[in-house]
């Protein structure tokens, strides 16, 4: 049997956290169709798994993912990509995940690799990480959201410069620009990411899901609609047992015991 292109572990420490790793080390985790299909299945099943509250995605020390598999893509015709709904076919799965997705980025996150990291909810980068949208250097353009999510994250000036020149940018530049939540020493990346994932997983799951949904609404709505949505969801938390428990525990000066309902 061939080796899995993405590996999955459900961790016990921290609890309720799943760790996905891209596993094509010989080609810098280039994203071919087979890998994308496996990832789609894994994301669907972890999102539906009640034992998992937070999903971490990572690569290896050298590469998170160096983009779409260029050797495979080189042969595609317009008819192939259009008829097969290339990219949309597998990557809508990531967009529909309701649980928090954390990208732990070490090494290269280029093209589709950078774009997948941007689909995640939090990016934590090792200090050796290199991001980039180098599609222009191979005669194409970002196709997995780079031209849309990058300007939303870092503004037009940097998005234009990075997409038009294809220049790789460092973890530090990414942090200053607001693309990544935090930069940490490479040898501490997983420790830091798993501590973050564990903290989120320790909270009430419905409250966590509502935070993700309401923040994402900020990118799809007017301010007035977004505020109204937030207010309704905030009111909605008062129907949760976990809100009662969380506030009661604060008043009683003890740790809350969330039941995720
Ligand atoms: N696709 C296929 N193979 C790759 C890719 C890639 N994206 N990146 C690296 N490899 C392969 C190399 O060909 C090489 O293979 P081999 O050992 O057989 O020669 C191996 O990985 C190691 O790479 P290098 O020898 O080049 O290692 P270096 O350390 O010299 O350089 C780099 C590393 C900088 C990452 C370099 O390999 C590179 O520039 N890679 C291409 C980066 C790129 O242009 N990415 C964008 C691709 S286009 C894209 O992502 C479109 C997005 C929309 C679609 C997404 C759908 C999934």
Explain the overall architecture:
The chain is of the alpha/beta class. Helices cover 46% and strands 16% of the residues. It is built from twelve helices and ten strands. A six-stranded mixed β-sheet has the order 1-2-3-5-7-10, sandwiched between helices. α1 packs parallel to α4, α6 crosses α7 and α10 runs antiparallel to α11. The site of octanoyl-coenzyme A has 22 residues, from α2 and β6.
Q: For the largest beta sheet, what order do the strands appear in spatially? A: 1-2-3-5-7-10
Strand % is 15-25%
* Assembly form of the protein: single chain
For the record, give the distance between the C-alpha atoms at the N and C termini, rounded to a whole number: 41 Å
Topology:
Blueprint: E1 6-11, E2 17-22, H1 33-48, E3 54-58, E4 63-65, H2 70-73, H3 78-83, H4 88-95, E5 101-105, E6 108-110, H5 112-119, E7 122-126, E8 130-132, H6 146-154, H7 156-165, E9 169-170, H8 171-177, E10 182-184, H9 189-201, H10 205-217, H11 223-237, H12 241-251
Parallel strand pairs: 2-3, 3-5, 4-6, 5-7, 6-8, 7-10
Antiparallel strand pairs: 1-2, 8-9
The protein binds octanoyl-coenzyme A.
Octanoyl-coenzyme A binds at residues 27-28, 30-31, 36, 66-71, 87, 108, 110-112, 134-135, 138, 142-144.
What's this entry about, in short?
This protein has helices at about 35-50, 70-75, 80-85, 90-95, 110-120, 145-155, 155-165, 170-175, 190-200, 205-215, 225-235, 240-250, and strands at about 5-10, 15-20, 55-60, 65, 100-105, 110, 120-125, 130, 170, 180-185. With about 260 residues, it is α/β, with parallel strands linked by helices.
């Amino acid at each position: 049997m061939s080796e899995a292109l993405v590996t999955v572990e459900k961790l016990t420490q921290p609890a309720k956290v799943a760790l996905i790793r891209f596993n094509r080390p010989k080609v810098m985790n280039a994203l071919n169709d087979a890998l994308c299909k496996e990832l789609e299945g894994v994301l669907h099943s972890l999102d539906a798994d009640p034992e998992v509250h937070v999903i971490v995605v990572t690569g290896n020390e050298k590469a998170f993912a160096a983009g779409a598999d260029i050797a495979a893509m080189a042969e595609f015709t317009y008819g192939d990509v259009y008829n097969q709904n290339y990219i949309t076919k597998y990557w809508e799965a990531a967009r529909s995940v309701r649980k928090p997705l954390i990208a732990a980025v070490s090494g290269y996150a280029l093209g589709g690799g950078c774009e997948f990291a941007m689909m995640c909810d939090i990016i934590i980068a090792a200090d050796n990480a290199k991001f980039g949208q180098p599609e222009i250097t191979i005669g194409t353009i970002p196709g997995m959201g780079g031209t849309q999510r990058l300007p939303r994250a870092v503004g037009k000036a940097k998005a234009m410069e990075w997409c038009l020149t294809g220049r790789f940018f460092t973890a530090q530049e990414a942090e200053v620009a607001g693309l990544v939540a935090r930069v940490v020493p490479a040898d501490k990346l997983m420790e830091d990411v798993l501590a973050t994932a564990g903290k989120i997983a320790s909270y009430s799951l419905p409250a966590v899901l509502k935070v993700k949904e309401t923040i994402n609404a900020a990118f799809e709505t007017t301010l007035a609609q977004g505020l109204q949505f937030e207010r309704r969801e905030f009111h909605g938390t008062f129907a949760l047992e976990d809100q009662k428990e969380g506030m009661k525990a604060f008043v009683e000066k003890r740790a809350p015991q969330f039941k995720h309902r």
